[in-house]
Structures are given as structure tokens and as C-alpha cells.
Amino acid sequence: MLSKLLMTGAAGGVGAALRPLLAEFATSVVLSDVTEITDLAAHESFQLCDLGDSGAVAALFDGGVDGVIHLGGVSVEKTFDLILNANLVGAYNLFEAARHHGQPRIIFASSNHTVGYYRRDEQLDNTVLPKPDSLYGVSKVFGESLASMYFNKFGQECLSVRIGSCFPKPADPRMLATWLAVEDLADLCACAFAAPRLGHTIVYGASDNAESWWDNRNADFLGWRPKHSSAKWRAEVLASASRQDARDPAVIYQGGGFVAAGHPSDKS
Amino acid sequence: MLSKLLMTGAAGGVGAALRPLLAEFATSVVLSDVTEITDLAAHESFQLCDLGDSGAVAALFDGGVDGVIHLGGVSVEKTFDLILNANLVGAYNLFEAARHHGQPRIIFASSNHTVGYYRRDEQLDNTVLPKPDSLYGVSKVFGESLASMYFNKFGQECLSVRIGSCFPKPADPRMLATWLAVEDLADLCACAFAAPRLGHTIVYGASDNAESWWDNRNADFLGWRPKHSSAKWRAEVLASASRQDARDPAVIYQGGGFVAAGHPSDKS
Amino acid sequence: MLSKLLMTGAAGGVGAALRPLLAEFATSVVLSDVTEITDLAAHESFQLCDLGDSGAVAALFDGGVDGVIHLGGVSVEKTFDLILNANLVGAYNLFEAARHHGQPRIIFASSNHTVGYYRRDEQLDNTVLPKPDSLYGVSKVFGESLASMYFNKFGQECLSVRIGSCFPKPADPRMLATWLAVEDLADLCACAFAAPRLGHTIVYGASDNAESWWDNRNADFLGWRPKHSSAKWRAEVLASASRQDARDPAVIYQGGGFVAAGHPSDKS
Amino acid sequence: MLSKLLMTGAAGGVGAALRPLLAEFATSVVLSDVTEITDLAAHESFQLCDLGDSGAVAALFDGGVDGVIHLGGVSVEKTFDLILNANLVGAYNLFEAARHHGQPRIIFASSNHTVGYYRRDEQLDNTVLPKPDSLYGVSKVFGESLASMYFNKFGQECLSVRIGSCFPKPADPRMLATWLAVEDLADLCACAFAAPRLGHTIVYGASDNAESWWDNRNADFLGWRPKHSSAKWRAEVLASASRQDARDPAVIYQGGGFVAAGHPSDKS
Amino acid sequence: MLSKLLMTGAAGGVGAALRPLLAEFATSVVLSDVTEITDLAAHESFQLCDLGDSGAVAALFDGGVDGVIHLGGVSVEKTFDLILNANLVGAYNLFEAARHHGQPRIIFASSNHTVGYYRRDEQLDNTVLPKPDSLYGVSKVFGESLASMYFNKFGQECLSVRIGSCFPKPADPRMLATWLAVEDLADLCACAFAAPRLGHTIVYGASDNAESWWDNRNADFLGWRPKHSSAKWRAEVLASASRQDARDPAVIYQGGGFVAAGHPSDKS
Amino acid sequence: MLSKLLMTGAAGGVGAALRPLLAEFATSVVLSDVTEITDLAAHESFQLCDLGDSGAVAALFDGGVDGVIHLGGVSVEKTFDLILNANLVGAYNLFEAARHHGQPRIIFASSNHTVGYYRRDEQLDNTVLPKPDSLYGVSKVFGESLASMYFNKFGQECLSVRIGSCFPKPADPRMLATWLAVEDLADLCACAFAAPRLGHTIVYGASDNAESWWDNRNADFLGWRPKHSSAKWRAEVLASASRQDARDPAVIYQGGGFVAAGHPSDKS
Questions:
Q1: What residue stretches are annotated with the NAD-dependent epimerase/dehydratase domain (chains A, B, C, D, E, F) (predicted)?
Q2: CA E244 to CA C31: how far, in whole Å?
């Protein structure tokens, strides 16, 4: 049980879904985002913070926190300047702040887009070379590498979760493989905070879906076993899906639509 | 859901068992074999065909089919001339006909005898070099290689199923590992027809048996999870089995009796 | 079903727990230990034996046995002379006796301490190079190597079980990963005696725990599926555990306390 | 030193180049082809043979041979009926004849086109799953599989050489990687005939070229070390080559032009 | 032969050493750096450029270049703001400029510090997960990931060279393994520009040293074979070296001194 | 350069051959054996020692040694009691003595017979699971495991050399693969003593022979490159060799004659 948990990016979709589940393992929760959150529960407080502002990030740790869930930053493809501030500078600011404030464990929201250019018929474990599919994906490789170095050099522990698709339910055929129930994500966070040793571990964030591209065996020491599955929406998803072209890169590669998208700075 | 499914080898054991299950995913079914089938259901039709006859094979696709289950051909060790006609020429005829008729997906009944000379204490995934145990097994390696080339060069998609033992129930200790419930096979076919992309994929056709030599993880993207197991017949099978000699090649190697059988042209 | 099973080390903790379960697959059981056992069931008999005494070990096979569970020997870190007699000479004596008495299959109680210097975030299968964590662990590597040679050269079959923690329930956080329910161990023995071929197989002896460092896929041919899990004691274990230091070798490495212990001959 | 060596396909390019080098390890040489050879040396004899004719193939072994170099058959992409006769039926006829005539070792001219759909930046050893690039390549997979089965079941030893480009000198950029000096091929044959045990071994037939896609380490037990290299023609080849398009499948994949060629039965 | 080659970071040590060798494969060379270069040869020109200035970087490509050697940026551990500008923003600016100017091939000076936290007794190929040892190393992982994405998505080809130690001669025991003769680096660049297809390839930049931690086999398709070795300085280096402590992280890990260095922002 | 080197087993074949070469890297050399050596050079001294006598072994380190070459013990198949004393107790005594005397690096003469039951067409690196072929081979697995534990737990560094055949020249076809020139062994010892860090490293002791079963890449960090080869005796060896039976276990497996030999205690 944590005394005080910090969660960045708390106003986003994953953050909003996770909030009600955090009370399971944290007595109080500091929420942070660039957007204000007003519907606070009794155990929650809010602190506005632009991740690109190192002072503001350090202030999030005032009074001490003993766990961090770092969802903050850009979570889709954007122009480089936006990614630079929130995901590159922002990640650096967060790890530096943690290092200077007692090294609480960090759950880092990485992404499947770090490996989006692997094919769907390739099964990936957590030792594969990244093949990002977007500037966004590249920024998450940066975050994971930073986490790796901060652990090896400074002992700062971190779980990098390559989140698939954390939505209320799978919305398209690709999500039958990538869907992550928020309850499974909460369990994963709990396992990571409870583990005798976390080190820097990379884990794929997907529920126990029948369709699967990812192999988490090297993280089995954490004891995480997802309990949910996309199976109950399978028929519904397939029925409403438009026909998939087997020659479409968005169908061939794991990254899906991110693979097919052009450069964010190009005129459409 | 397919409009019209073609199933070759429909008069054989696996074909007969599969027929009642095909209605789940096909509106109409064309059955074909060298032996006539007369007990046709309303959604079934029959077309006689020797797979060695390219014209007859092409005629199976008349009017268009949008899926093929290719069980046809010799399914045990036979002399080379029989295998040549049905399994070598036959496979070529089938892939050529499919290529010229809109490239419907093919489920190709390959066999565990493509890898029969691996030991039972070796765990095989779908990337291992074939080690066939018979002329029959060699002919199935030919079929898989043809399928691989037809996909890479022409885009013809195919699932090569290395079928274990598709019988009503396991009949001997070896089948505790190799048994494939026909319902699981039907589910696999449905997954393959429904998948956004199939490419050329090799999968081992066995149910969720406790004894296992095969690892299908590279085909997990299909979403197939067999639901049946040989476990309920385990005690019965072991009780009635004669003593196994641990030094017998038929016990050491996966191919079982096929390994121990001599050349089909040799006088017994 | 075995006619007569020999179990060495029957007076130890694992032996005592296994005894009531052996009747499932053995008609009569010869128990042996250096400590006398007096509470014998009708199907049990007892024979005193120091494993370092080759004549006494040979005498255990008098009248013939058709299966051996070899738990005897030192099971924790001890000085070299004790290990030498019971685990080195003792293992040799046992394999020699078996070789001369019809080669009944042997279940050899090896240990996770053969690989104690792998990290907990490393997933081990049964082909990894041993990295023992103690003189005790070295002696178990010796036993496994002896078993490997006796099978390859003489055909003596053996299952080397790298037992995790076979206790009534997990007693600390490490055992959440290493715990082996004695019922699962009994099932494993039954599978090994029933398998058509055993060869020399190494298997990790742990129940179906969520926390896991070990991958038994290469032994899947045995058909063993553990049914128990440490999960039901998880909350209790974590609540009563003292804080784990993520930098402590006993927490980093699989061997736990064995890694941290000094040399048994050093003065404390 | 062999007493009598049989070489099929002796009238082809590789056969003609090899002939003068065979005297190093064979006292007499039987040459065979569908085309007559008239310029026979003293130690050579000629026997006309269509490989599709089992009687004619058997006759090649009359009087006994103690080694076979099987270059015969179609060596480029052709229509299926031609490949069927020479490469499928022909290979079967040859292995059957050898099996019935004392099982002389066979050097089988397989081809890099068995793996033509791997990319050039993939390094292949001899355990990879075949990915043929043509009907011709498929026929060579058949031949290798047949050889594998004939060794495992009947003890017929064979070296399957996945020949790259055996020409007087490299003619284009691709051949800088695939070139095989005929002297290196002759050395390889000599190693295979001299080895204490050959089994069925697959080896890539390329000289010691700086550009390389293939790893022969698993065949290092043969003691073959190619002595030639494409390096001395590198500047010349690159100077005269037309510009390579990095997006051209013929440049991406190992099979080169075979990958780009359509189906041999299609009208051009 | 390139018409116009752009080399950034030309005033640094590696740049200065490479300059005289570029004439082998480039008719004219544009040198760039933040420090002016005045001793220009006839085929050289100079253009001042801060890599963090996207307009200035784009201007380097004015008039077209058909090859880029990108040595620019910070090459040792520095504070994050310096690395941010030169190595993160700088790399992005360079790849964007190349993408908009005809996609000339890029040789990207990455670093062995992308994998500095692997041990020296681990042999690395180019598919391992990065384990950077410094903010500098993290920035090079970013650059490689960016290059990977620019190739997969936009077709921009790049060679990422994980340079070891490119100095006139090895200066300490570690460099016996990491030394890269500048002539070997020049040959590598020439191979990369001449290859039919480069894609995005990672290669370790070390000469043919006896001590070696790196395996370039997956880049063998380039045809690069380093000709130099650290061996001739071995005795001299070992004689003058201070005693190495086998327990020192700087001796255990590949990154050497970078591993031992603290955070660049910490007060010493 | 070592001040004082201890070499056990100095009266044996390898020891006698190594002696003249040790002066390259050791100022004085203490020779030890159960057989007295009288032809001492000026820098050599002799000390009689039964390795089974812990006091005698400890005495070898009197006055301090800064390097050990441990060739002592039984080097062929013998009865268990002989192996027990010299190779099991002896190895323990030596590692204990080294641990108590400043932990000089140990070169441990292990043997290829630790892996004798791998086939010759299998390529082994230093991470494979041992498969010993004899009681002798099992004792060498024990020694390597002891060395592994002494390094991981106590920091005692050691090189375990799986010596092939260290004779003046190869004497039979198997030795074409296993031959180790004594000069190459001396170089290897020198590399191991000079390396900045040795840890516990396993290396196969064979010269640069064309025939090869072993892959030392994971020991490349040592900088050892053997300079000799069995090639110059190849023709002579093959000419005088009797015919090899490809089905003989002694020809199939790496262990050669050790594989074929029965149990040393069996009556012949």
C-alpha cells in the first residue's frame, strides 16, 4: 500500500479510467495534468503541471511520494515540437525529479508504437530491438532508454508498460489483439509496486486476448495475470468492421493506423 | 461468413467429421472427392474430382468460391506414384486454380509428419526446418513450400495446418499429445477465414492437450484457442495400451508409427 | 501403476508429505532414510540406509523395485564433507545400484539452487547452463550430470526435478514464485512413471504460481500440468513480509538466501 | 579417394566446370545427362539418362558407384511439367537407385532459391524454414526433404548444397554475395566424401565473399573452408552495373531475379 | 562515387581524420560544424551550422547532396540541454532535411554507448535491446530509432554506426576491443554508399581486433571487412596500463568510463 | 607478467609440453604432481601433492602465487573412487586453497568430455547444458560448476578450458577437429592472466582447425586467437585412418571413444 501516489496525465482517457481503481493500493493520490481536474475524491488532490517545466515537475514531488504513474505527455502522433516538450523534455524532467526525491518507483506509460513496424505474425518479447512507427513512438523509445539508464546507473526502478489500447471496449479488429482492460492495468501497477524488485522492466500492456502478438514471459516474475479478454466483443467488432485489406501496411504491421499515417508536418 | 466454401477430400474421415460444422461459417459448401458423397444436406453440393486432373480441379472453382479447405490427397504412407498424383500434382493444381479464380483463402491439410523425425522431448514452433518421416510427409513439405511461394510471389493466402490426429477420441498414448478435436479444427478454420490478414501461416493442429510437443505462439495473431483436451481419455488410453519401449524409434520420435514403417515399395 | 516404489530421504519434510500420496501409483513402497520411520502404513516398509554406503544402497533394490524417488541426501548448504558423502557419493551409489537392478526409472530431487545465480527477471528453460549458488547447488549439478550420462550411455531413465519450495504453504515473498504443492509433485512423479519415454529430463518443480521464473515447455511431453497456486496466500505473505531491498543479492537472484549465505566452513 | 563417381547433369555449366577437378578425388567418373558428352577424358565414361526414367537412373549405378554428384534436372524457373519430371520424379528416382545400390554418398545440387524470399539483410544458417522463390525453388525444397527422410529412415547420407552462383566470375552485384568458385565447390565435394560422418547436411554454396547472407557454421564439422572470393571483381562489377533500386523486390530479397519473375505458365 | 557528400561535425576528431579519405568516393565534400574549418582542400567547402537550427540544417542540402556523413552533435556525456539541442533536435532536423532533399543516404555516427550497460563477456549483434550508459547514449538510441522510423515509413536509408573508439591508436586496455581505424571507417562508409540496398542497418564500428564484444554478421551483406587491428599496440597498451579492478563497473561493462561517470548535472 | 605461477599436474603430457612456454608470462613456476619432476629449470621448483589432501594443496600456495594452471587430476575415464579423490575432492581443495590465499586467477583444465554427447554436426557455444560422456566428464562438469559458484559468490576468477586434444599432432580423424596446439594453449593462458576481467569464463580449447564443432565467440573478449591448425596433418591422418562407420556412436558424438567405452567398473 502506497502512502502517496503521483499520477501525471490524469485528465486523459486512461487517467480518468484508472482514478477510481487507485484507492486499492494508494492512501492518497496527487493528480496532475495541463488540464485542471475538479471532481476530486476525498483522497485526491490536483496540481497543474506542464511536463516541460522542470521546476513544476519537481514540485509534484513536494512532501514526498512513494509511487508514480506517469501517463502525461502526448499520446498520439503530433508535430515534433509538441512531442519534444512533453515527451522528451517531460520524461527527462520526471526522471530527474524522481531521482532527487527518494526514487519512488515509476510506472511509465510507454506504447506499442515503440514496436509498430513489426508484423502481426511476429511474436515479440521484451528484448526486441524497437521499431517505432511514428515520432510519438520514437519519443517512447527515448523514454524507455532513459528509464533503462536511470536504473542501471542510479538504481531508479521503473516499469515501462507498452500499452496497447486502453479503452472501455475494443473498437476495431486490431484492438481484439491490443485491448487492455483498465482493471488489468490497475492490477499491473499494483504488482509493480508490490514486487520485491522491479529494476527496469518492459511489459506489453494487453489483456488476456485470444489474438496476441506479445509475449510477457520475461516479466512473469511480477506475478501479473490479466483477467479480462476482448473475446466477448469479438463477434460484434467483426460484424461492424469494414473489410480489411491484407496488403495494407496498417493491417500487416502491429502499429495499425500509426504506420499508415504520414509525417505530422506534411500538408495533407 | 463465407458465401461458398469448397472442401476437397470431403469423403475422408476428417472431411466427414467437419461437414456438419461448416455451416457455422459458410452459406453453401461444395464437397469434392474421388469417392461420391450422396447424403448431401441442403446447403451442400458434390463434385467428383481427381486432384491430378488440372481441368477437373479448375472446374471446382466454377461460379466462384470464397474459401477452400483442402483435405484431398493421400493421407498415409503410400507408394510414390500415388503420392505424386494426388499430393504433388494435386497440390499444384489446386494452388493454380485458386490463383486463377480470385485467390480465395486456402486451409491446407498439412501434417505433423512433415516434422516426424524430431524427438518428442523437442518443442517445435512453426519456424523449424522440416524433418519428414515418410514419402507422405515429404509431399506435405512440398505443399507447404508451394503455399509459401504462392503467398510471397502471388499474394495467395493460406493456412497450413500440421494436423496431429483428428479422430473422435485418442486411440493410443501418442494421440494424447497429437489429438485434434474436430470442433477445434472447425474453430481454427473459422479464425483463419476471419483474420484481417492470413499470409502463409503454419500452425500445429492439436487440441489443448496436457501432453504437447508443439508451440503455436507465432500463430497467436489468429486468435485460435482450442477448447478440447485429450485428458478425459487419458486413464482409459493408458490402461489399454501395451507397454511402450523407450528405445523404440516409434516412441522416441514424434512421427510414431510412420517413423518405424519401411519404404512403401519394399516387399514386406 | 508401480509394483514396488523405493523412496529415499523418506523421513525428511518432502518425503513425509509425499508418503500419503504415493498409494495412487504404487502398490508397495519401500521407505529409506538415515533416520528410522516407525509409523508405517500397511503398504509401506522401511530400510535404514546411509547413501554413502554402496552396499546399503544396493540392498535397497533387493527383490526388485520398478520406480525410485530419490529425495535422500543433504538438502541445504552444509560443509563439503557432508555433501560429499550424501550427495556426491550417494548419488553415484544410487545410479549404480539402479543400473545393476533392472534400471527402474528414477525421480531425482534436484534443486533450483543449481541455477540460483540467475536473476529473477530471467526466464529459464531446462537447457540453460547451471549457475549454482552453494556447495549444495553444485552437488545437484553433479547429480543431474550423472543422470544425463547414465541415460545417454546406459539407457537409465531419470527425471531431475529442480524443486522450488515444497512446503505446506509459501512462507515468504520468494516462495510466491518457487512454491510447489506436494500434490503437484505427486502428479509430476506419476506423469514421469507413466510416460512412454522419459529419457533424462530436467523439469522445474513449481506449482502454477502467478510469479514465475521458469519455463517447463521442453517437458510438456510429460503431460504434467500443476493444479495449485501460491495465489491464495499472496496477500497474507506480503502483509507479513519485512521490506525487501531491491539491491540485496538475495532479492536480485533466484537462489534467495542461499546466494547471501557465506561459505559453510567459514567462521561466522 | 573414390573408385567410381557418378555425376548427373554433367553437360550443364557447373558439370562442365567441375569435370576437370574430379580427378583429385575419383579414379573413374561416370558422366550422365540428357545431352550427350563426347569429349571424354580417359577416366571418364558417359551414359545418357532422362532422370524421369527410373530404369535408366537405376542403370547409372550398374557395377557400383561409391559417390554421386547429382547436378541433373532443371536449374532455372520452368513450367511445372518440366520440373515435375526432372526435379521431383528425378530426385526420387535417384535416391531410390542409390538406396538399392549400396547407398553411396550423394552431393545434391540444391539451390539458394530454396530460401529466396529471405531479405538480404537476414543472415541464414542451415536450420531456417525454407522460403522458396519459384517452382524451381520448391522442387529443391522437395529434394532436400527427401534427402532428410532418406537419411533418417534409411541411413542414406547426403550433402545438400544450396548453390549460389557457380560461374567463372561474378556477373552482377548480387553475385558478389552468391558467387561460388568451382574450385571451392570441388573442395566441398571432397570434404563431404572424406568426412567420417555426413548424415544429411545442408550447406550454402558460396565462396569466401565479403558480401554474405549465409552462415555455414553448423557444417563446420566438414572442414570446408572456401579459398576464393568475389572481391577481385568487385570494382569491375559495380562499375558496369546499372543502378539498383533499393525498393525492387529483386534487390530486397536474396532470390534476386527469381523473385521478380512471374509464373512460368503465364503469358508474358 | 558520390557527386557531393555532406559531412557534419567535420571539425571534430573523427571528422578531421576522415576528411583526407573521403576523396576516394566523393567528388566534392561539404564540411559543416559549429567551429569554422579553414584549411580546405580544393574539393572541399565549408558551411557553418548549428544542428539545432532547422533552417541552417536544411541549407546544408542546398544544391543537392547525394550522401551524408552525420558526425555532428555532442560526442561525450554532457548536460541535458546541450544534448537536447545538438543530438535530439539536431538529429530530427537532419533527417527532416534529408527527407525533403531527395533522401540521400545517411551514415549516422551512433555510439557503443547505446549498449554500454551490457557486460564485456556478452557478445552483441545488431538486434539487441539498447542499454545506454549515459544521457549521451540515450540520445544516440533516439537517433537510431528515428532512423529506423524514417526508413520504414519514408524510405530514407541510413547506416547507424555504433562507433567504438576512433582514435589514431588504442590508448587503454578497453580500446583494444573498441578501436576503430579511421581507414576502416572510411571503407565502411564506402560500402554503405555502394550497397544495392542499405535500408536502416546498425553496425558496430570496430576494427578487426582480437578482443571483441560485437558481432556484425547481420550487416555482412554490406561487404565490409575491416583490415586493421589493435593487436600491434597490445603489448604497449598493457604495459602502460594501470591495474584493472575486475569488480569495477567500468571494467565489467562495455561502456567503460561512461558507466562510472555520475550525472552531468550533479555537483562533483 | 606473473611473479609466481603454480601448475598442478605438471608431470602429465600437457604439463610437460606447457612448461617450456610458461616463462613467457611467469617469472617463477611452482610445479606440482603426484609424480616427482626432477629436470627442473632455474625458474622452476617442484612440490609433491596429492590433490585429495587439503593440507598439501593449501601448502602449494605458501608464500603466495599470483596465478594457477590446474591440470592435476585424472584425465581419462577411471573408476569412481579415483575420480572422487583427484577430481572432486581435488577440485574443491584447490578452489578453497585459492580462496584463502588471495584468489589468484585459476586456469582450470576442463574437458570436451563435459559435452561429449552432443553430435558432431551440432555447434556448441559456452552456454549449452553439459552432456558428459563419462564419469570423468561428469567430474569436469562438477569442477566448472564449482568454479562458477566460487566466482559468483566469492569473486574467485577462473577460466575453464574445455580442452580438446592437446598432443604434438592430431593422431586420428576426430583430432582434426579437437586438436589444440600447446602454443595456442599457452597463448590462451596468457590472455586469461592479462585480461582486465576474467570472471568465470568457459572456453573450448581447440586450435584454428578447419573442422570445428565449437564456437568461442562469448570468450572473444579475452582476445585469444589460436594460430595453429590441424590442416597440415590432414592428408596424413586421413590416409592412415581406418574406415569410419557413420553409424558408430563414437563417430556420431563429439566424445568419440569416451562415448563408446563402457562403465569403468564393469568387467570387460
A1: 6-165
A2: 56
Question: Residues A91, A96, A101, CA angle at the centre, nearest 5°?
Answer: 125
Q: Could you tell me if residue F268 is inside a domain?
A: no
Percent helix, strand and coil across chain C, each to the nearest 5: 40, 20, 45
Contacts of D210 in chain E (CB under 8 A): 220, 223-225
Instruction: Mutate one of A221, A224, A227 to test the C interface: name it (highest C CB count within 10 A).
Output: A221
Is C136 part of the annotated catalytic residue set? yes
For residue E151, give its domain range: 2-260
> Is this complex scored with an ipTM above 0.95?
yes
Count the Cβ atoms, other than its own, within 10 Å of residue E159.
28
Handedness of CA F250, F253, F255, F258 (dihedral sign): negative
Q: Which of residues 240-259 of B touch C (CB under 8 A)?
A: 244, 246-247, 251-252
Q: Where are the beta strands (DSSP E) in chain B?
A: 2-8, 26-33, 44-48, 67-70, 106-111, 158-163, 200-205
Do the Cβ atoms of C149 and F133 come within 8 Å? yes
Residue C243's pLDDT band, with cuts at 50, 70 and 90, is confident
F197 touches chain E (CB under 8 A): yes
- For residues C19-52, one letter each, b for 16 or more C-beta atoms within 10 angstroms of the residue's C-beta and e for the rest, the string is bebbbebbeebbbbbbeebeeeeeebebbebbbb
What's the rounded mean pLDDT across residues F89-118? 98
The three-point CA angle B264-B80-B249 to 5° equals 40
- Quote the pTM value: 0.97
Phi, psi of A174 (to 5 degrees): -60, -40
* Spatial distance between the Cα atoms of B6 and D165, rounded to a whole number of angstroms: 42
Question: What pLDDT is stored for residue C268 in this prediction?
Answer: 61
- Identify the pLDDT of residue E243: 83
Distance from C-alpha of C209 to C-alpha of C110, rounded to nearest angstrom: 20
- Active-site residue, from C92, C117, C118, C136: C136
C-alpha dist (Å) from residue F153 to B104, C133, C253, F102: 62, 7, 11, 15
DSSP string, F32-52: EESS------TTEEEEE--TT
What are the tens digits of pLDDT across the range F12-41? 999 999 999 999 999 999 999 999 999 999
Q: Which residues contact E42 (CB under 8 A, 6 or more apart)?
A: none
Q: Please report whether residue A155 resides in a domain.
A: yes
Q: Cell numbers at residue B150, please?
A: 504462392
Total domain count, chain B = 1
| Alpha helices (H) in D23-168, listed in sequence order | 54-59, 80-83, 90-100, 135-154
Q: Whose grid coordinates read 552396499?
A: C55
Domain assignment present for A130: yes
Domain with residue B190: its CATH number is 3.40.50.720
Q: What are the φ/ψ torsions at residue E98 (nearest 5 degrees)? A: -65, -45
| Cβ(A15)–Cβ(A33) below 8 Å | yes
Report the gap between the CA of F181 and the closest CA in chain C (Å).
28
D174 neighbourhood in chain E, CB within 8 Å: 196
List CB contacts of B235: < 8 A, sequence separation 6 or more.
none
E94 in contact with chain A, both atoms CB, cutoff 8 A: no
3+ Cβ–Cβ pairs closer than 8 Å linking B and F: no
Work out whether strand B200-205 and strand C2-8 pair parallel, antiparallel, or are unpaired: unpaired
User: C242 pLDDT exceeds 80?
Assistant: yes
Distance from CA of C124 to the nearest CA of B (A): 15
Cβ distance C259 to C166 under 8 Å?
A: no
| CB F66, CB F72: distance < 8 Å | no
Residues of D within 8 A of E194 (CB-CB) are 238
List the 25-84 stretch of B: residues with Cβ below 8 A of C. Answer: none
Phi-psi region of A73 (alpha: psi -120 to 50; beta: other; left: phi over 0): left
Residue E45 within any structural domain of the chain: yes
